[in-house]
Batch of 4 targets.
Target 1
Amino acid sequence: QSDSESWDSPAEINFDFQTARINTTQSGDLMYDLAFWDGLTGMNGATRLSGYYQAHAGIFGSDSSVDDTIRLEDYKYSKFLWDNSISLYLKPLQGVPTMEQSSLKYSVDANVYTYNLADGSTVDDREYIGSWISGEDDFNHHEASATAIWKPGYFSVTSGISGNIPPLSRRYSLSTGVGYARSGWTADVSQQTDYENDAWNLQPIVMSGSWTGWKDEVTISQTARYDTDDVRWVSAETLLGFWGFETKFVANYGTTYTWSGTTWTEDPKESFAPSSLTFSYRREFDPKPAWKNRIRTNTRLDTSWNINLRQPTENILGFKWTQVLFIHQFLDLEISFSSTNKSMYLYFPKWRNQLGIPNESNFFQDLMKSFNVFNPEDRRQSQFNMDRIDVSLVHHLRSWDLTVEYSGWPALNSTADGYFWKSELDVFMKWNALPMFNQRTKLQDSSWSVDSFEQDS
């Protein structure tokens, strides 16, 4: 717990400042998307140059210092990267309406050049080296695939093959599927076979069905997986969603547990049994803009109750409230609060009896105790605890953005016998590229067009 009760005056508050972290990131992107012969074939990709720099400094007081471990981490963070990705495609059956989505694809994503701290470098003897693309570690993705899709009416039949290309390790996948979609109803059956580690592995059959209606506000879905090798059901998931509320029930094949009186012990045999139950509510509220559309607000509510049906002590209720304010070309302000109750099992007699807990607990009394600012003991006894506070402020300064971010949360102290309030404050400037550097050039119907766009960070 905090030692705030011992503070009689502001002068008694002690601040322990850690070293300030200063980092910068510079990047330039060139993206392209080319299509030929009405989309029969084409290519798209991006190349990016990125520079990273980081340093720590004791600028908030003489009690903060930068040791060699932190300095070495700064040197490792500072680097220059050249990344490139490209994808080529061909749709040979584009002239056939029921099979126009069939395609052949090739894609690669790799680090072309890296300039970073050499392995084995120390603070006193550091060396930066550059290396070009040379082996498997430089490739994030390198794959070729062929997919055949046939869509007669409301039905669809899909078959595909994909695989890694050297220098990546050998991995191939074969997949087939049959589907149906009409008026909000969908049904799908699919199966995949993977080749990895010199062996083919048949994956479980996936069966799913769903219905969405009432202006997409209500959804009912069921998904099940069946293992043909072991001849058993692997998992089943049922979901019901309506107007922001969602309920999800999951059962699967796995380990079950029994309460021994002091801890959970594994049952001798695995079985197919209920696994988890989740209730949630997510909703966004967007009032009408004010001051000639210059001011906009947004409110987001996110509440979830996650129940582990095999170990009811893992029973967590979480709540997050986020408020956002936008003032056009001037200010973006976002404030969020999150709170959790990790002992929801205490309010249910069945679970209390199973765990041997004699004392009764009332959900609403516990909730009211958490708001009792006049009685610290009530707040300590309540199972409702604040998780964290996050504040983000972005002040737009034409070509620059000034951003201030604050986060605070209760953290366990080094002796694990109490908590203290831990805070982080970040302040940074971002240069917004001039419109002349964010240009989109497009050729369509023998006509060229050029426009500017905003690049998300």
Target 2
Amino acid sequence: MQLKNSIIAIIVLFIMCCSSRFAHAQRGGIIRNQGFYLTLGPSYGQGIGLETDYGINTDIFSPYFVGIKTSINQYLGYKTSVGAGIGYMRYVSPRMNVLPISVNFKYFFKEIANTFLIYTEGGFAPRLESGKQNKGFIYEAGLGYRLNINRSNSFILFQLGYNSFKTNNWDWSIRQPDFSYDDPYKWYYLKRSSIILSVSFTRSYR
């Protein structure tokens, strides 16, 4: 029930952030989709699932993460852009820290400054902590809304999506009774699925 309420709260917050300014989209006629733009902002992810081949009950965990990421992006036209970025994500229950390096693609529904968009991004998170093998692939996809700030080259970007991170080399701190460090199959995979909400400050340059 707590997980369900958290997901509902994230979705409601995203809708409120977008709809509170939706009327301004009719006046956002300035085209800003030219040149390149930078983004920087925090994110929060509510876990919706854990998968592993270790053979333990993953329901005992309450996974979530907090993070921050930045990216540099280039418009390919008035409705599309590509970019690359780097971030920091701190996962909780079970705990891990990763440094994802990713590429992204965005499609803007309209050419005006205030517009909805869809996005996808993916990449690889190298090991961040010595003694930990929590490296793996990460990807994300979802819906967003770009809000212009006072008819300038600055924007607030809201994004709500699905985030997945999988490592094939996870060392569980919870040991099974027959666990042995001499076992050549010490490492197990761990896949984390989350609903992610991101709010980023965006600045475009021509």
Target 3
Amino acid sequence: MRPELPRAGVLSLREQLVVLPPAAKVVAGLAMLGMGVGAMLMLPGSFYSIVLICFGTALGVPLVLAGRAEFRQRRRDADEMVRARADLETLKPLVTEAVREKRGVDRLLRERGYSSEKVRRWIALECDVVLPRRDV
């Protein structure tokens, strides 16, 4: 049995949908749902309309939900970044002390209420500390 080799330059449907921006995900998901409903209205009870409504629902609903979740995450990150910019001068001595005492900077920032990894990394870089990237 041969191991599966990656195809150069060809993205799967899942990979293509993941890289879409949130607004495009919401619009594409609503369009898929609309096409499925439109097919059902044009050809009620037809096999093809049932297939299209199932296909539209199977792809449309997750896309809409994922797009909305990304919008919420971006809004939370933006709010947290504003807070981080305001608190940066008070955080620099705390981070410096944590590095000197060999405590975790990431843990310190989590305890201070910074939940976004992007924001924690930005704060650490502003304080001349490099946090390791976590693969979640």
Target 4
Amino acid sequence: MENKDNVRPPTCDSSVESCKFVGFTRLVDDKETNFASCLPGAGGCYSPAKLLEAEESEMHTAELIKATNEINKILANIPEHPTCGLSILHLKQGTLLAWVEHGQAEIEGGITSESDPELVAKHFNLI
């Protein structure tokens, strides 16, 4: 998505750099709707959504390797979203799978992993 100065904002790929999420609100059909964007930064957003693989060890047993492979297959089989990438967000409350926009410009005043947990819970509709 190009901005008004025709400068493409950076796209974050957490396999090669640290990324952060920023929650924001925009109007969609005259209704305020919550979204999230993944930007280069201090962590919290992992795209593409995938668990890391490791060799078998005392802390990563054969059962965990099998579970990791099964989870990654499930994630890989989720149909693509037309405008967002599937990401893993690490919130203070835990981990959330979410459709996240990439290539957005920095968003001032958005919800981040450092925001008040109540604001984060409200923005992401946590239950």
